[in-house]
Amino acid sequence: MPECDMAGAKQKRIFITGGASGLGKAIALNYAKQGYKVCIGDVNEERGLSVLAELSSLGIQAHYLHCDITQLSDLEKAKQALIDLWGGVDIVVNNAGVAGTAGSIEDVSMTDWDWVININLLGVARGCKVFTALFKQQHSGYFINIASAAGLMNAPQMSSYNASKAGVISISETLKFELEKYNIGVSVVCPAFFKTNLTESMKSTVTGVTQRITQVMEHSKVSAEDVAQDIYNCQQKGEFWVLSHKPERKLWLLKRYLPFVFARVMKKQMAKLFAS
Ligand SMILES: NC(=O)c1ccc[n+]([C@@H]2O[C@H](COP(=O)([O-])OP(=O)(O)OC[C@H]3O[C@@H](n4cnc5c(N)ncnc54)[C@H](O)[C@@H]3O)[C@@H](O)[C@H]2O)c1
How much is the mean pLDDT over the chain? Predict the structure, then answer.
């Protein structure tokens, strides 16, 4: 059970993978400001410890764990650490991810496919697998899975990233139906571009794409903090879809109700991004 604070209110606990940077960091700080105990897991210790210092300065209980989401054993260790520290955890955010490799289907290597699927898709599967057992024991829990608008729109030249994120949406929808009866909630987050360090992990077989995507991210009107706030609002209300970017939310509706118009709009937008 969550511990009580001085006022007797139950202090909630959150664990965030990839919490050392970008969206994971913004989610960590936002929940910390709401009074949660926060634990971040990452493979980047330097950034992780720096975020830990920021979290601790807010006067909440915070922890950093080395947690590589490609290793089931790291997630098992993280779960045990959270049980030892706090007796459990209320929210798990499967956020850690990489940008993958841009390029046409014949150019991107199967090694690169393995890399992005292993982190972006199987990392979320591992997180859900490991923490579902604990959530069932607790009779409560909440998964926030970070997918992407890429998994809904399927833009060209990004097959492996798109497939990894469409897979995250699929796992999330499956678990929403599978786990509801155990009092375990699920939200899936599908943002478009916003500024983070994501393109540090981007590979490309197409000249200039990483730079163009970095520019689009830098000029985005939506920040990591905006997405983190939407996530908090939707999770508190138990809403499944978190679609922070208004234009992409409209595009998604267009795809469902007017697919031919959607195809024309996508063709135009993607021609700009992938112009060679
Ligand atoms: N930034 C965007 O425009 C955007 C858009 C849609 C979705 N997303 C998704 O948001 C999530 C967070 O990415 P971000 O944009 O904040 O990027 P980021 O690079 O700033 O942060 C990603 C974090 O994940 C960590 N990480 C990478 N591999 C890991 C592993 N194997 N184990 C544990 N940690 C690992 C990195 O060290 C980093 O701290 C990702 O899933 C990404 O696909 C980002």
Answer: 94
The alpha carbon of residue 167 and the mean position of all alpha carbons in its chain are separated, in whole angstroms, by 13
Residue from 100, 83, 95 nearest 51 by CA? 95
Predicted TM-score (pTM) of this structure: 0.95
CATH architecture of 13-248: 3-Layer(aba) Sandwich (3.40)
Q: Which residues line ligand 1 (CB under 6 A)?
A: 17-18, 20-24, 42-44, 47, 67-70, 95-98, 119, 146, 148, 191, 193-194, 196-198, 200-201, 217
Question: How many other β-carbons are positioned within 10 Å of the β-carbon of residue 207?
Answer: 8
Type and span of the H or E element at 182: none
Find all residues with CB under 8 Å of 264, minimum gap 6, and list them.
none
At 85 the three-state DSSP class reads helix
pLDDT less than 50: residues of the chain = 1-2, 4-8
Q: State residue 7's pLDDT score.
A: 43
Mind listing the pLDDT tens digit for each residue in 258-272? Answer: 999 999 988 887 777
